[in-house]
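Quick one: Dermatopontin from Crocodylus porosus, structure tokens please.
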Amino acid sequence: MEFVLLCVFLPLVTVAWEGHSDYYYPQYNYGDNDEWVNVYRQGFNFQCPPGQVIVAVRSTFSKEEGSDRLWNYACMPTPQSLGEPTECWWEEINRAGTEWYQTCSNNGLVAGFQSQYFPSVLDREWQFYCCRYSRRCSYSCWLTTEYPGHYGEDVDMMLYTYDHYIRGATTTFSAVDREHRTASRGITGQRCALGTFGSLGSFLPKGIASGSSSSAG
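--- reply ---
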């Protein structure tokens, strides 16, 4: 399955992070001891600490281990200009062995994932943990091409600018390769980058899509 993440660009962040607008995230730390958050063919639940969201994803694929992947994620605190998280929730489950498109509802940002492996289809189901923040933001989104070009490739993706966040994902599934290719989408203060990271399996180009809207953030 191909997994594409939805990233967000929030102009308000410039105020809170003044002087850092031209810099990448100063640092990001994966899970404890830089290890994976799951083992092959087992379920897992990962949530960022309160007030933080996902900014980096790393994954490696093994056909020998049931066409499954190991995963790790990194979190970063959101800027004060984004406000405090007002609520967090689990979105609907995206079933294994199917293609799906998921965006955090209510203008939420991705702050975690949980997943279960199903040996009958050699695939995982996914559920997003989303958090909504108190400040308003307008945004538009489009697909990016920041993902591996073939199924089974390793993934090491981070959001290189402080003002982009993950907001959702879309996937395609290969019954032959038994894995998903994923792409990611995001919201931005005035635009949001829709990039891709391999989450369920590996990736292939998804094309470009654009749009815009305005809503509470």
